[in-house]
Amino acid sequence: MSAPTTPRTPPAPGAPRGPRARRTRRAAGAPHSAASARPRLLGRVAVNAVVGLSVLYTLLPVLWLLLASAKNRGALFRSDLLSLGDFSFADNLAALFAMEDGIYGRWYLNSLLYAVVGAAVSTMISVACGYAFDKYRFRGKEKLFGLVLAGVMVPPTVLALPLYLMASEVGLVNTFWSVFIPVLFNPFGVYLGRVFSQGYVPDEVLEAARVDGAGELASYFRVALRMLGPGLVTVFLFQLTAIWNNFFLPMVMLSDQKLFPVSLGLYVWNSAAVVTPDYYPVVISGSLLAVLPLIAAFVLLQRHWRSGLTAGSVK
């Protein structure tokens, strides 16, 4: 049985028919389509302009740092960075690692130790806590998680003085542990860990693992942790960046220059450059080397990082 067809309305008497009618309809709709295309074009131009300005705002300081690190002190004071002469990048690097008996290398190793090891341990703690908040039921869970969210809103600089007083009570001031221990606990990482657990670890998979005889620790390390790979990378990158750029806490806790991270060491040299201009080239070269680990981490892990940022966006 064929479907009923809708009767067509006959054209009005005297109205154009055939190809002439189609041309007339297209001509009538042309002004409307042109008017609608104009706002879309202006919107694209505005978005591209904003993106271009953001890129320039981000890349111009890096470009200046790259050019300035290749110039000697005279070219820096003349602001002559675009000339082909006065090229002394190798000399600046040699002076950087020779300054004050090569202490910059010690600062660099300290930063790698604080940031890489600290970010790795902090990531494991944060993701495990977020997993527990997501998969287990216990008394006061949501209230405790509310405290975690409140901790996210507290600036780290506010906690520097209380942390110093507590470290002073136990004798940890001016030691490696006074900077390393506080960075292991990150409320924002716990929040992200719960989000990633909700988005990547289905409850049915854990139930199947328990039916097969796996305990809670085995289910977490053998099943859940592998599924949380993108989340681990994302939390690690956030924490690596925060620890590497950490400045105020080491400044409060440390007085021994051999324990300084790169950020604090370069600050001390930059303050000394006001009196001794020889520090200016080494500060600039040291700043260039200081950003390389973060760039390398984001380039090597960006694929996992992008997928981790979309956790929980689609159910």
From TrEMBL:
Main location: membrane
Biased composition (Pro residues): 7-16
Database matches in Pfam families: BPD_transp_1
Region called Disordered, residue ranges: 1-35
InterPro entries (UniProt xref): MetI-like (IPR000515), MetI-like_sf (IPR035906)
UniProt record similarity statement: Belongs to the binding-protein-dependent transport system permease family.
Protein name: Carbohydrate ABC transporter permease
Membrane-protein topology: Multi-pass membrane protein
Origin superkingdom: Bacteria
UniProt KW Ligase keyword: no
Keywords: Cell membrane, Membrane, Transmembrane, Transmembrane helix, Transport
Membrane-spanning ranges: 45-69, 111-133, 145-165, 171-192, 223-244, 279-301
Compartment(s) of residence: Cell membrane
Residue span, ABC transmembrane type-1 domain: 108-301
